[in-house]
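Weekly modeling sync, notes
Attendees: AB, CL, MP (scribe)

Item 1: holo prediction request
CL wants a bound-state model with oxa(dethia)-CoA before deciding which constructs to order. AB pointed out that an apo prediction alone won't tell us much about the pocket. Agreed to run with the ligand included and paste results into these notes for async review.

Input as submitted:
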Amino acid sequence: MTKLRTTITGIGAFVPDYILTNDELSKMVDTSDEWIMTRIGIKERHIIKEEGEGSSFVGAKAVQQLLEKTNTSPDEVDLLICATVTPDHQFPATANIISDKVGIKNAFSFDLNAGCSGFLYALTTASKFIECGSHKKVVVVGAEKMSSIVDYQDRATCPIFGDGAGAVLLEPTTEDIGIVDSKLQSDGVGRIHLHQKAGGSVKPSSHETIDAREHYIYQEGQPVFKWAVSKMADVSIEVMERNGITPETLAWLVPHQANMRIIEATAKRMGIKKEQVMINIHRYGNTTSATLPLCLWEWEDQLKKGDNIILATFGAGFTWGAMYVKWGYDGKDVKK
Ligand code: UT7
């Protein structure tokens, strides 16, 4: 029997209209454009300001665009996975809500939370449903309203995060393209450095947790930074080596966009040039589960069939991983 592989056949994305600049942030907390650009590399981030809207707002728009670009009817989709750390509600899953908003009815859908590695975890999970032959059109969407858990009184975290969503369509192929290999890892020891203290079953919401601002992101930046560089680079090198990819034969590294210095240090440790790295952190900030598809979406017209691409992530958990994709189509031919 011919072995099936999973290939990405389209990309959609959406960021909300409102742009939060470093200058505006400097009026909210004691910071400056100069500090944020030097230490993080973010100039602006998009924020959902629409009343009563959550992550499904941006997620549904990204999926809608994906379906239109790929001429896919919602009825054809048989699975949708939403990677998010900011679901609309604790339950039901944001994936169910996105599916309803775009008219996907013949599918099952669920959320996946793996911190900033969520999109890569979801992509790997989705690919298994295709490789075993049970599913033919699968949507993976990373959707976040990070602004709903950012403390805009905490200068150490509020410049970092932004809102947005990106989605890909996955289909089976028997060609020598698609998702070739991935390695995912996690180590819960990292939870002490990056978490949300209240709002879960350990510490349900109460007046006290609200007063203590415990529903916001808690992060110890430096340990997260160190883990991110070494884990993201080392797992990428491992996946490259076991597939015979060298820095010379690599077309693109698509790294999680958490900090410009993390991206640069990762590329250096991997021995690859900055021109091989997709970087848009300055415009969107860290959109958690949406960073990877937002990069693929922006670079789509430069991607060529057969390009060797490494996707790499690191996030809360800790979670990390890398995926080797042999790109499946010429992006310049895609209708805008
Ligand atoms: O995607 C999820 C994974 N998350 C990450 O990858 C984040 C990883 N960590 C980082 O990106 C960096 O550690 C941060 C951007 C969070 C912080 O940068 P840093 O270079 O590690 O700074 P720091 O925490 O060591 O702080 C240095 C100084 C401190 O002042 P003192 O104690 O030296 O007087 C901070 O209070 O910078 C101060 N500081 C700021 N100053 C101006 C912290 N935030 C700000 C700010 N503006 N926004």
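Recorded for review: The longest helix spans residues 221-242.
Action items: CL to compare against the apo run; MP to circulate these notes.
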